[in-house]
Design goal:
about 475 residues, Glutamine Phosphoribosylpyrophosphate, subunit 1, domain 1, Rossmann fold, seven-stranded antiparallel beta sheet, six-stranded antiparallel beta sheet, about 30% helix, about 25% strand, binds iron/sulfur cluster
């Protein structure tokens, strides 16, 4: 994906009862790399029951090599790719987090964001907790261990008690010497799937990683569920009876890989359907449809199919401009998008273009693309967005700017269109989004402000934090 001012906050993976577990995890993390590029790590349990870890800042290919992977022996492992949405970057926040404890070592990985982390951190620090990191993921470990528990008592009880104290979006994998605990928040914000592999099990943020390693999809983890995986197989407990399923709509719209299925809906099929519905809701007289690569190509194909217009590759993405690309001056930064995306002049010159994009955050990227297409000779550029207007920040693990920086926060449709210099602009409706996935149990808070959880700050505090 090119950087569209919108970043997911991590991908998690775990495997139990499978030979060469760390190697399997390494391949799976490659498939989840789109969910975070700042750092990654793997912890495995060796035959003596010792938990070993390799982690570092950078891409999976930069952090791991044959030598350090060889230190991760055993049939059980968990892994993580990180984009920091909470807590600073830095090696201490790269996961898995590993804890040495007299009741048994354990490690954990987390995707999501806790909305009551500030309150819980204070509560724990007041009782003597010393945190190793600024990441909210560490809070769960301290909550699990805050009370002395019977050495041979069931570990699931303190885990379930701790899960009931945290609020927000999370999927956690907790790994001990003998088992994995797979936990999903009671709203089900983030996707989380279980597969079978060579007599063992694999769990992943996305099914694309299960396919990569040859695992057979079994099912999704339910909102509010804790699944235990060990030599007994799979066992399930609900830690919460609360039911308001609110799957993050942006997972379908932008984050997840098109070959992933989220709760039995394929991501490519969802996006293609949004494109078709977008044409029904906002048709335009034009010559060609151009999708913004990569995440908008499915929606563009749906728009083209429904409208009968040719779907052309009018923009090319430079796949080799990476995270570490240095743009030292403002002038170079202004040219940044052009380095990542280039128009195909022979296709766009003299054409009336329907430009399909999945979403608009700040609008600076859209403006640059519109200008770029005009400079390449496009006669008209009509922007069609395969999601509603983003008017609110996300508190659930998606780095989505602050209120005042969002293009559509305080602008009308006409003003937004003018700001990005398009000939026309239209967004998919919320109903269109529901229709595309045949489901209405989605979180749409960044579009409509209906946050499924309490935010643990008054709206005035949220507003002042976000300076609007
Ligand atoms: S606010 Fe938006 S990005 Fe955040 S979880 Fe909800 S739908 Fe996803």
């Amino acid at each position: 994906m090119y950087n569209k001012e919108l970043n997911e906050g991590c991908g998690v993976f775990g495997v139990w009862g499978v030979p060469h577990a760390a190697e399997v995890t390494y391949y799976a993390l490659h498939s989840l790399q789109h969910r975070g590029q700042e750092g990654c790590g793997i912890v495995s349990v060796n035959d003596e029951g010792w938990l070993n870890r390799v982690k570092g800042q950078g891409l999976v290919t930069e952090v791991f090599n044959e030598d350090n992977l060889a230190t991760l022996q055993g049939n059980s492992a968990i892994g993580h790719v990180r984009y920091s949405t909470h807590g600073a970057g830095g090696i201490e926040n790269v996961q898995p987090l590993l804890f040495r404890h007299n009741s048994g070592d354990f490690a954990l990985v987390h995707n999501g964001n806790l909305v009551n982390s500030a309150q819980l951190r204070k509560y724990l620090e007041d009782r003597g907790s010393l945190f190793q990191s600024t990441s909210d993921s560490e809070i769960l470990a301290h909550l699990i261990k805050k009370e002395p528990v019977e050495r041979n008592g069931p570990r699931i009880i303190p885990i379930m008690e701790a899960l009931n104290m945290i609020e927000g979006a999370f999927v956690f994998i907790i790994m001990t010497q003998h088992r994995l605990y797979i936990c999903r928040d009671k709203y089900g914000f983030r996707p989380f799937s279980i597969g079978k592999l060579n007599g063992g099990f694999a769990v992943s943020s996305e099914t694309c990683a299960l396919s990569t390693i040859g695992a057979e999809y079994v099912r999704d983890v339910e909102p509010g569920e804790v699944v235990t995986i060990d030599h007994h197989g799979l066992r399930t407990r609900m830690y919460s009876d609360y039911q308001r399923h609110a799957m993050c709509a942006m997972e379908y719209i932008y984050f997840a890989r098109p070959d992933s299925d989220i709760e039995n809906v394929n991501v490519h099929a969802f996006r293609k359907e949004t494109g078709k519905i977008l044409w029904q809701e906002a048709p335009v007289d034009a010559d060609i449809v151009v999708g913004v690569p990569d995440s908008s190509l499915s929606a563009a194909s749906g728009y083209a199919e429904a409208s009968g217009l040719p779907n052309e590759m009018g923009l090319i993405k430079n796949k080799y401009i990476g995270r570490t690309f240095i743009q030292p001056s403002q002038e170079m930064r202004d040219k940044g998008v052009k380095m990542k995306l280039s128009p195909v002049q022979s296709i766009v010159c003299g054409k009336r273009i329907v430009l399909v994009d999945d979403s608009i955050v700040r609008g600076t990227t859209s403006l640059r693309i519109v200008r770029m297409l005009r400079a390449a000779g496009a006669k008209e550029v009509h922007l069609r967005i395969a999601s509603p207007m983003i008017k609110n920040p996300c508190f659930y693990g998606v780095d989505m700017s602050v209120h005042k920086e969002l293009l559509c926060f305080s602008r009308t449709l006409e003003e937004a269109c003018k700001a990005i210099e398009a000939d026309s602009l239209a967004f998919l409706s919320e109903e269109g989004l529901f229709k595309a996935g045949h489901r209405a149990d989605l979180c749409l808070a960044c579009f409509n402000g209906d946050y499924p959880t309490a935010l643990y700050s008054s709206i005035e505090e949220v507003k002042s934090e976000h300076k609007f």
